[in-house]
Design brief:
2 domains, about 35% helix, 14 strands, disordered N terminus, 8-stranded parallel β-sheet, alpha/beta, Rossmann fold, single chain, 13 helices
């Protein structure tokens, strides 16, 4: 196996594509596939797409859900009946990634028309594509394959977020929990079918790199390429956000996720907010669903997803600290965005979270999993508020 390469994602992949296109006598044809057009993985896909186009590459992005087709080079390739039936069947047989045959057949016909030089996979789970059909096509085609593994789904029997699969009651949801071993063997058979000389695995963090090197995918070359954010957008952005919500000189603690779940630390945020003095602290959560916003604790300012990246940058900038209590993330983009806006981050040392922290004033909290997460986080945040006020001239008193 080749040695690990550690660099930033978009620029490196654009440079690689330009090198692959040398001598072709035509633009390189580069196709990316992902479950969603939006969200963190969709943003990674779209950023690379824009970079490739700027350098003359014939770039395509194809996705399964959450956005309609935009043009011939930016297409939604799954249908609503397709992904709904896929999800329903998974609840019965746990066969995530092994349905959607009709939609996948249409996708493969489109790939035949494009005849790509490079196919870059992102998330192939999400109820939108049949991986057995897709990898059969990739194995038979001449294209180079790049696969950014944003989570653990590819090499587990069930879970997307854990290498040891203890979370059988979580996504992908199913009432059948007996087929984990079968799924694991099916994935081993299918996902290793592309020759290692034509498929390179890209991991956004060293943490996930270490896991893939222990998996059945270890025969493939692995590269660590950290995701980046657009620093022309995510930068210190003054706004009237604090004034609009009447925060005054209160210490603002921000959390951002989409969606907010227990794995993202929603419960930790609720416990934290209920234990803070609302006269001294303002707790803001961005990215809640309308259902979640119906009954938020009175101590939390609950907001839906920001309307634009620019609005989100302004909210990051308004905060004194960004708290990311995730229980396990590969390389959380939200922490990158906050630091790019010069807002320090407090996060637990889980998954690849520590690899996202660069600012000297940010804090990585060890000891997650000891049952004292909320207590520990509260202590760290209070200490941070005393030491590093951003908008106030006086330090906060002990809570």
């Amino acid at each position: 196996m080749t040695g690990t390469h550690d660099t930033l994602t978009t620029d490196a992949l654009v440079d690689e594509a330009l090198a692959l296109g040398e001598g072709l006598g035509r633009p390189l044809r580069y196709v990316q596939l992902n479950s969603f057009h939006n969200g963190s993985t969709g943003t990674v896909m779209c950023n690379l797409h824009r970079g490739l186009i700027e350098h003359g590459v014939d770039s395509y992005i194809l996705w399964g859900r959450r956005h309609e087709t935009i043009n011939d080079h930016e297409r939604c390739v799954a249908t609503r009946p397709g992904y709904l039936s896929h999800g329903a069947l998974v609840r019965l047989d746990e066969g995530a990634g092994f349905h959607s045959k009709h939609d996948t057949a249409r996708l493969l016909r489109l790939l035949d028309e494009i005849d790509p030089d490079v196919v870059h996979l992102h998330n192939v789970h999400g109820y939108w594509v049949n991986v057995e059909m897709l990898f059969g096509w990739l194995a038979d085609h001449r294209c180079q394959v790049r696969w950014t593994l944003h989570d653990c789904w590819a090499f587990t029997g069930h879970c997307a977020r854990s290498e040891s699969c203890p979370q059988l009651g979580t996504y992908p949801m199913t009432i059948c929990k007996r087929n984990c071993a079968r799924n694991f063997e099916d994935k081993r058979r299918v996902l290793t079918s592309v020759p290692s000389e034509r498929m390179t695995l890209i991991r956004p963090s060293h943490w996930l790199e270490s896991l893939v090197k222990q998996s059945f995918l270890k025969k493939h070359p692995v590269e660590v390429r950290h995701n980046t954010v657009d620093r022309t957008v995510f930068k210190p952005t003054p706004s009237d956000f604090r004034e609009r919500y009447g925060f005054g000189d209160r210490f603002m603690i921000l959390g951002v996720a989409s969606p907010w779940t227990e794995r993202k630390g929603l419960g930790d945020f609720v416990c934290l907010a209920c234990g803070l003095d609302p006269e001294r602290y303002a707790v803001v959560l961005v990215g809640l669903t309308r259902k979640q916003m119906k009954r938020p604790p009175k101590e939390i300012v609950a907001l839906e997803r920001a309307s634009s990246p620019q609005e989100l940058a302004a909210i990051y900038t308004a905060a004194d600290v960004f708290f990311n209590p995730t229980r396990g993330d590969n390389f959380p983009t939200v922490s990158l965005e906050a630091e790019a806006c010069d807002t320090p981050v407090i996060t637990f040392d889980v998954g690849g979270c520590a690899e996202t922290v660069e600012l000297a004033k940010s804090v990585v909290v060890a000891g997650y999993g000891n049952g004292l997460e909320s207590v520990t986080a509260r202590g760290v945040l209070l200490d941070f508020a005393r030491r590093a006020p951003k908008y106030r001239t006086l330090l906060l008193e002990a809570a």
